[in-house]
Amino acid sequence: MTAPRPRVDVVIPCYNEVKVLEQSTLATLALFDQNPQYDWRLVIADNGSTDGTSELARRLAAEHDRVHALVLEVKGRGLALREAWLQSDADIVSYMDVDLSTDLAHLPELIAMVAERGCDVAIGSRLARGAKVKRQLKREITSRGYVALIRLTFPRLRITDAQCGFKALNRRAVQLVVPHIENRMWFFDTELLILAQQAGLKICELPVRWVEDPDTKVKIVSTALEDIRGLARMRFRRRRPGAAPP
Length: 246
What we know:
Layout: E1 7-14, H1 21-34, E2 39-47, H2 53-63, E3 67-72, H3 77-87, E4 92-96, H4 107-115, E5 121-125, E6 132-134, H5 137-153, E7 166-170, H6 171-177, H7 188-198, E8 203-207, E9 209-211, H8 220-236
Parallel strand pairs: 1-2, 1-4, 2-3, 5-8, 6-9
Antiparallel strand pairs: 4-7, 5-7
Helix pairs in contact: 5-8
């Protein structure tokens, strides 16, 4: 008998993204059609939008069987991912940014790293060897500086990029890590990786093609402060029994 296809949930967290959501949804569904080796579902996780994104998400879900709308009243990218992943019963959960800054063609490879290559967590990297990136110099410097800070604070976490909006986890990683993530905003990704490393999970990186969205919602200064506070909290917190040292 033929083994069932792995079920994959791809989550797109949204906050006031009515201008790009439908186009990104249709592009993602087209990629699903081109890769039938997985049983795909697209989850639009709207968190507190006020521009009609939630209404559009519900319409897309009504029009397409493989689209699900998760509408939250509270703002928070990390919160949206946490809720979507914990509610999912898929074999693999993932997420990508709605602007598709990471080349969508990488998605099947990212999922394959978890489904076929033994990775518990797979992450896109804009700084790994082989990545092709187009973005402002100040954001490049900020990203590299943040990775250096992570390595100084958590030297066992061998990654080149924590904040790329392109990640996938298997069911075991979801159960072990996601319920313990406290951050609801941008530090969510880093906290996920720190907890995954401390739980002994295998983290794999995929060099990606990435183009910066000029309309990005990320604010450099406030995000940097949030990240610094998050690293301090994680470094000095009381670790769960059985967790590896930082």
